[in-house]
Amino acid sequence: MLPRRTHVFPLVSVSLLAFLPAVTGRAAPGPVGVSLSVRTHTGGETTGEIPKNMVMIGRGTFRMGLTKKELQKLFSPDTAQMYDKLTAMYPDHDETVGDLLVDIYEVTNQQFQTYLDAKNLPPSQDLVELNWSYWNAGKKVEGLPPGKEQHPVRGISWYEAARCARWLGKRLPTEVEWEYVARRGLKKDQYYPWDGKGWDAWDRSKCANTYNSRQGQDGISPWVVGHWKEDVSKDGVFDLCGNVGEWTSSEFLPYTGYEPLEEKIRGRGRKTFRFEYASDDKVVRGGSCHGTALQNNLLVRWGTSPRNAMEAVGFRTVMSALPGMDQLNDAMKRELTLLSGDFRDKLDMSNEAIAAQIVHYQDPRDNVIRGTSYLAFTKVDKLPTKWGNLVKRSVEEPVPLGILTTSSRIVDPDLPAGSYAFYFKGKGESKEQKEARKNAGKSGGEDKKEEKPKVLSDAEKRELAEQAEVQRELEKIGAVRTPRIDPLDVPTDQDILIIKNEAGDDVAWVPANVEEVRPHATHMSYIAGGGANEVNGTAAAGSALGADPGPNDLATIQFSVRAGSASRHPQLNLNLQFPPGAFEPIDPPAEDDGKKKR
């Protein structure tokens, strides 16, 4: 029998900022030297700080790409061999980007090494060969070269960059986001971060490129991030035009309206130029220490296999301004892949629907992120009919209500860290439960006869093969499959929420705690411990949630869904218990090496 919730704790409605030990007020126990950057979203409002070395970029619409006339200015006999590649910047079109948090600097070797150490991963052979090796006393040594800690990491594949970004609590930018960040505030004919019009504004002395990058025994080397003070966006984002190219999350596809271009080339007559795109490739943006005038600008784009690791390609990360959105999108993309299309379409990813908190643990000496934690939830936008009708129908077919993803293990119900879908089942016995109960009664007093092996149909064999493939994919991402609920373990005398895991199995249930309210935003509240040790999670009290937490920490998510045309709608209270101090940092900071804060 799975653990179930049969009790309700007293709750206080507070900001989820209190889900972590407070930065001010009474000092919480934990590693000395680790600071918290907490961003919380509850009740439709976001509070907290953004991680150090990030900047907020406001929503906006911009012109992306080049017109045919602008592109033709690049064509000359000297660039003829690159015509096909240059056409990838064509045509121009409008794009809109939402509020965004962006890394000021490219991800450094030191940050990437911190990630590898935390995950207990060795550096890849490509990283060692292309970046992390150096000559010492005539011998080649494998490892991060001394003095290169603040240089951008390079020689990593797209997969490595994406996994590191996820561990940082962030993500890779889309191609549209990258160009918006780079060109925001510039005139249409500005193709470089500094002043000047058109292609004539190129100045090789203003960014890290093949002309001024240092060449030595280890090859061409990029510079310390942020060194080139004129290679910076209007919002203070460095190294967009040079240093290392940057992976994006976008597939390498033509811009909308793209068509081959026919040009007359001196001495070669008319020729049609077209670029061969590949959706399996990922877009790389930005110039590099290996680049020249044609490659080091804010519009050039090219694609390569995500498996490739290149000497002059690294990455920077971004976060959606709405906390929890990236984690929820990632959960649907990587873990909750078996959600029906109808369920996905109904999920509400708006400001009012999401409740979440994300915490970054940063070393204040160098702002290197030591780890992250998160909890995020969202609900469906509306139900297809009135609540009373759905309560009856849900006895046989549970109704999807929302999804949750968390970096922490859940104590009650007993579930590992991961992503889960929640379904409502009304009070009553389903046909499946009736059948299971009857079968259990029949087999209770009878001698079991030896059964012959069942002959599987082709359809059953295919289903088993598909299940095995799902399990293999789950193991690749480190997901833990929890046991499936037996129908007899689900109560019939109360309304409940059934929880499904990433494989689509029913793995737990909790009381639904349904009330009727007017529509409101999704809220979270938090209490650390219970009884004599209870600490209410109020930010104003300067709570130290890890000081004497008692048995477990309790989080409550209150959310309502629109049902029919009534003015009052069902509100559900989801109560979850987490381990004491589940969201506190557990690894001590590195020893002080005398490095100054960047």
Topology:
Blueprint lengths: L34 E8 L2 E4 L5 E4 L2 E5 L3 H5 L10 H4 L6 E5 L2 E4 L5 H11 L5 H6 L2 E4 L2 E4 L15 H10 L7 H9 L30 E3 L2 E3 L23 E8 L8 E5 L3 E5 L4 E8 L15 E4 L8 E2 L3 E3 L4 H10 L6 H6 L8 E9 L4 E12 L2 E2 L3 H7 L5 E8 L11 E8 L5 H14 L13 H19 L19 E5 L5 E6 L2 E4 L5 E6 L6 E2 L16 E8 L1 E2 L5 E10 L20
Parallel strand pairs: 11-16, 20-29
Antiparallel strand pairs: 1-2, 1-18, 3-6, 4-5, 6-17, 7-8, 9-10, 11-14, 12-13, 14-15, 18-19, 19-21, 21-22, 22-23, 23-24, 25-30, 26-27, 26-28, 28-30
Cα separation of the termini: 53 Å
Strand order of the largest sheet: 2-1-18-19-21-22-23-24
Using only C-alpha atoms, the radius of gyration works out to 28 Å
Number of helices: 11
Structural class, by secondary structure, is alpha+beta
As residue ranges, the low-confidence spans are 1-32, 530-550, 585-598
Number of strands: 30
Binned strand content? 25-35%
Rounded mean pLDDT is 80
Query: Major sheet, described briefly?
Result: 8 strands, antiparallel
Helix content: 10-25%
Shape: elongated
Structural features, described:
17% of the residues lie in helices and 27% in strands. The protein is of the alpha+beta class and 598 residues long. The strands form nine sheets. The protein has an eight-stranded antiparallel beta sheet with strand order 2-1-18-19-21-22-23-24. It has a five-stranded antiparallel beta sheet with strand order 25-30-28-26-27, with no helix packed on it. Strands 15-14-11-16 form a four-stranded mixed beta sheet. The chain is elongated. It starts with 34 loop residues before the first strand and ends in a 20-residue tail after the last strand. The model is unreliable at 1-32, 530-550 and 585-598 (pLDDT under 50).
